[in-house]
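Something for you to look into today, if you have time. Could you write out one complete protein record for me, on any chain you like? The space below this message is yours for that.
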Amino acid sequence: MDVKLDSRTKWIGGGVAAAAAAGVAAWWLTRVETPPYTLVLKDGVLEVRAYGALTVATTRTKGQRQDALSRGFRVLADYIFAKSRDGEKIAMTAPVLSDADGDSWRTRFVMPARFVDIAPPEPPAGIEIETVAARRVAAIRFSGRADDRMLAEHEARLREWLEEYGLKATGPAEHAFYNAPFVPGPMRRNEVMLPVASIY
């Protein structure tokens, strides 16, 4: 027997599904480590943050941004989950960082804080362990499945905001992605970040 749903029932069902997805997204972020920072300045979804030194695993991939990010992430995931090396798995963290590096895209996985003082597992060829020095970054946060247009629009908005506050970007834009692939677009957390020289 076919069961037909009226519009109200469909709306309630959709609302329950959205709430469940939001709950899963929030739960996932509470289960992963994110790098700590000090909030220097905040204006809505725009912030200036002070980060300490970070240890990152880095790989470089050529191609279009999204394809390069996907391939770079898979390389790093094999390292994190001990598929391309011996030893124990490394706990997942957020965000995954991406930025342009000459004619390549650089994908970076922030290592858990315990690897600031001890060496992480030896990576396979194609992955480097690097230290990102303590720095300040400006960031703008937004939801959705970030495409090139969205990233460019939010970078432009962030640069305009920096001008309003008399702040100067000291390097190229970086993209930060916080969520697991299964999280729906409206529940996703993305950021465009710019390193800054700050008077604050």
The first strand starts at residue 37 and ends at 43.
